[in-house]
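Here is one chain, start to finish.
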Amino acid sequence: TRLDWKKVCPIAKEKEVYVIGNPPYYGSRKQNQEQKDDLQFVFQRDYKSLDYISIWFYKGARYIGSNNAQMALVSTNSVCQGLLVGLIWKRVLSSSIEISFAYQSFKWINNAKGNAGVTVIIVGLRNLSTKQKYLFEDGLQKEVKNINPYLIEYNTNVIVAKREKPLSNFPKMNFGNMAADDGNLLFTEQEKNDFILQEPRARKYIKEIIAAQEFLNGKRRFCLWLEGVDEREYSKLSLVKERVDKNYKVRLNSSRPKFAKIPHIFAQITQPKEKSFIAIPRVSSEKRAYIPIGSFDSNYKAIDSTLIIATDDPWLFAVVTSRIHMVWVRAVGGKLKTDYRYSSTLC
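Its structure:
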């Protein structure tokens, strides 16, 4: 990753060179320190969110540039989705390089014991050419004039970069509330019922939560919601205090012990107190024609497996549940394998 490829493998002008590889896959959260240092060495800036395999695309493009050479890599599909497109592909294509062929996402497994499989793509790179390009999907080959970094046929290489602020006067989308409680403030429906039977005065502190899996699968979950409640008041309820005390110990011994100072409430509360909100699951199945999206009043509490928009305006709900919105999500949104991974900064 830190060597000059042209020194290691010089390209003679009279020869054709083909670079073929299956580089290591490590997302930004799975990299060790040496791999993070490699990314910093190669890219200098805007590298912290990059997959490790980005190095091979970038250095490979520079290796074949202006030479009689081509390259093809098997890669995780994440490099052609969501945030990573804006971070890596401007760099790759900036030196008169184009995508010559591509296999869209497919699950790749081998014969290794316990193989879980990985969702991959295959991308070919070459110098700019008038030759045809080929796009492969579901076993079919299609001849196209251009393949953009999202691995779809389009006449220009449009790249959508992340954006922290809305383009116009739209309310901002945030993560739902983060519990960070090891389950001490959360209940299944049965646990909630048992808890209220034993501690009936705690009923007013129980709120239904909106979490991605429960929302998608029609199930219910609840939480102990003590925001704004005086400690002297909730401490009178022994089962409530027991859960708060357990949460204190969990947070004190966690990687973020500062949250032990507020053991009775969620670690981060992002939801406005008196406003309705739209909730969008962060991950949902690709098999759905539309991402399930719901509108809820302030008595419900969203958690961070969802993204929320605090609004009482019904027209915004119509926008995010529209077909044109789903077209955008499919085109530029991120993926978890091949499922939709919704982002507040892209879609």
